[in-house]
Prior knowledge:
Elements (H helix, E strand, L loop, with lengths): L1 H10 L2 H5 L6 E3 L2 E4 L11 E4 L4 E4 L5 E2 L1 H9 L3 H12 L15 H18 L3 H9 L4 H6 L3 E3 L5 H8 L4 H6 L3 E3 L5 E3 L4 E7 L5 E8 L11 E3 L12 E2 L1 H11 L2 E4 L2 H9 L5 E4 L6 H8 L4 E4 L5 H16 L3 E4 L8 H8 L1 H9 L2 E2 H12 L3 H18 L3 H15 L3 H9 L26 H17 L8 H12 L1 H7 L4 H14 L5 H34 L2 H20 L5
Parallel strand pairs: 13-14, 13-15, 15-16
Antiparallel strand pairs: 1-2, 2-3, 3-4, 4-5, 6-9, 7-8, 9-10, 10-11, 12-14, 16-17
Amino acid sequence: MTDTVQQIKDRLSIVDVVSQYVKLERAGVTLKARCPFHAERTPSFTVSPERGTYHCFGCGVGGDIFSFVEAIEGLDFKGALKVLADKAGVEIVYSGGQKDEKDEKARLFELMEVATIYYTSKLDDAARNYLKDRGMEDHTIKHFRVGYAGNAWSDACDYLRSKKFTDTEIVDSGMGKKNERGGLLDKFRNRIMFPIADSAGRIIAFSGRSFGEHASPEAPKYLNSPETPLFHKSNILYGFDKAKIDMRKLGCAVLVEGQMDLLASHQAGWGNTVAVSGTAFTPEHAALIKRMTDNIVIALDADAAGIKAAGKASRAALASGLNVKVAQLPTGLDPADLLLKEGPDAWRASIRDAKDIITFLLDVLQEHAKSPDIFRRSVETVVLPFLQDVQSPIAREQYLHEIAGRLGVSIDAIAQALKNLPETLLQHPVTPPATTMKQADPIRNMQFDRAREAFSILLWQQSLHKPTLDLEAYTTDLKEAVGFEIFARLQLIPENERESLRFSAEHLHASGTVIPAAKSLLRVITAERLASELSEATKALEKAEHAGDEAEIERLMTQCSLLTTHIAQLHITV
Length: 574
């Protein structure tokens, strides 16, 4: 495992990885960007190519390529390892050539992979013909690993048991459930199975569409895996693992409602399409998309339920700072039906002609309103709340103009109506992590601030493969300059703050100036410490003179004389 990690780091730089998610700009020896982990206008996210690390001065996050991919993709370490190994073209080899002892999640990932292989092997002619009738081609069926769960009560569970998975693991994965007698029953029966993957492409859940002559007419059309240690539906978008590269490349995401819609869209060339899985579009989904692009086109069904869902999804997207458009499909057609009946050109036109959410809502409401008064009331109750979620003041101003024009009233009237709305804002989907940058320093004074600056140079140099400074000599000089007490307190600075200090030093001191800068800083620190000691000694001398303590007076006078001489030798005025 260690060799694999090092091979990946040798082949992929921090810039290679981070630049695929955020736009980096050169800032001296480092690169900067707006942080992808919290909302900000001024870039405080910094990348150090030399050290292979990143750090945000706004929210305090930092680390290497592995922690970055873990955070931005929502993966564990093994998931990040898989993503980066694929990028680097490195085969994952575990210590001693054997896999490490598997933890609980690793076992569940393996179980879900085995279940996927099982279901794909059971895809029969009837299910395959149904998919083809819906326009699916063989390569699409294979690419998305579509399978089939038959009519038997426990075939899948029995198969998983034969592969040495325990009953507890089968239940925990969501693949089976206990019956009244304590036996195991399959979660999915009589369903076409669509595997759901995490960002790294590992199968974590299934969505099954009711199908087959034995399927119950009372069963739900779609059945999804329950929440499990692997699957949290509010954080997962179906197809995201396959769509994320195209989303970033094309600068846009397309959101559809179901698995068939997604397969049809990808097949038609829209590889940037994702779908919700058994839940409404959430702020967490919006945050996931925003890591790849600022733009989203929502293409849900054209019926009343679809329009309502598009409205809710748009609010979550707007609150996350996404630019939202809605594709208006022909009445009665979902994306898969549109592609099947009218072809890729019709789908392409729907995406191309997508309207801003405000314009879309105004068009729909105006088309169905029976009178101007009904239209006005609908705008107040339906459209205006969306303006509360629009993050851009310029976009909000443009929408105010459009709404005022549609209603034939002044902008001031619309603005007043907006002001009088009740608080209906959605919570922002991305809550900045609690900052650890502002922790209380042990001593809030100039001496400690200087000491931290000098300490940051030491930390930075220690992180380099080829430090410019003589680290042993600099450490000795630093201890002497700041004194034992302050140096001991510097050792208590936590790692997250140390990372911030490393970036500060790297940013302030290019390799060509670090030696003179460090020497000058230590001289200043020494002079300030001596001046502080001289001040304390002078005060003590005044007390000794007042008390008439001749021995103490003589000692303190000698101390003050030595301190004055040392300060003068530094040639620094304090």
